[in-house]
Amino acid sequence: MTELVLHGLSTAELAQRLCLSEYTVQDHLKGIFEKVGVRSRRDLVAQIFFQHYVPRLEMGAQIGATGWFSETES
Predict the structure, then answer these.
(1) 33 is a domain residue
(2) pTM over 0.85
(3) Range of 10's domain?
(4) DSSP at 63
């Protein structure tokens, strides 16, 4: 679900894609937010960016076509 949030899907889109009700999606998001220590989707995206992307970018890693790091990190 987190990957879909990172792609910007709305609650309704998440529910449709995952075959869940919008209420269930919201409950799952609350659980994710609690585990990560954030309060919103925006905060979740920022947390992931600063914990996973920034350190690798600072070391010279290159982002591949998928949006994740290419196999040949510097």
Answers:
(1) yes
(2) no
(3) 2-53
(4) B
Q: Which residues contact 14 (CB under 8 A, 6 or more apart)?
A: 1, 4, 5, 20, 25
Say which residues have a Cβ less than 8 Å from residue 62's Cβ, sequence separation at least 6: 69, 70, 72, 73, 74
The pLDDT tens digits of the residues spanning 41-71 come to 999 999 999 998 899 889 988 888 887 788 6
Does residue 36 fall inside a structural domain?
yes
The domain that contains 16 carries what CATH number?
1.10.10.10
Alpha-carbon span 2 to 33, nearest angstrom:
10
The count of structural domains within the chain is: 1
